[in-house]
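Possible regression after last week's pipeline update?

I re-ran a chain I had predicted before the update to compare outputs. Posting the input and the new output here so someone can diff against the archived version. Not blocking, just want to make sure nothing changed silently.
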Amino acid sequence: MSLTLIMPGLNEEESVRSAVDRVLASLEALADEFEVIVINDGSTDRTGEISEAIAAENPRVRVLHNEENLNYGLSLLRGIEAARCEWVGHIGMDLPLAPEDIDRFVPHFAENDVVVARRVDRSAHSPWRKVTSWTNNLLLRILFAPATSDLNFTQFYRRSYLRSVQPTSTSPAFMTPELILRAERTGRPVREVEVEFRKRQAGRAHFGRLPDILWTLKDMLRLRIQIWARGWER
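New output (post-update):
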């Protein structure tokens, strides 16, 4: 298996060392070829410094620095562009998906182009995150009727698929849903795998801010209008 794992993070100095170490240990047991791309998304703490120290110790780690905070969607697009391996996945530095669970996805790589993590419960979310997540899912169902049930967690993509698609969305909560929706609508095989959602152990969450919600809504409506006009094929 050949896998690039992208890890964007903002002000994660408390988490980055342990998170990357756990990811490396898991991938070493799974993949013949792998790389970890850490994206320092405009952090004002020591996230970038610690990430560079990790990369100096392990050649399989690369660090990209955003001069300003671009947020998760744009950071992920940047990581996808830099990815070198056959499969490309992503995971937050707070490790909402345990790296040790990555092995659940690998058996499905051979027959699919997208493999999606489906959370079995979301009790670890804050009350505000539960409200925004429920609203986001409702809008996705109304506007796009996806076959996939969880579009906003962690996914793994065949790199050849990513090279064939040009997402129009850049917002934190709609960039990956667009990738999944485009795969569904253009006949790409998509598989969901159930996993446990892990609660953040350190640092502060950055999802659910009002500007990001409005950004996501704008991306959703723009894509819906484009699809009505031109369809899913690009």
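Follow-up from reviewer: compared with the archived run. The mean pLDDT is 92. Marking as no regression found.
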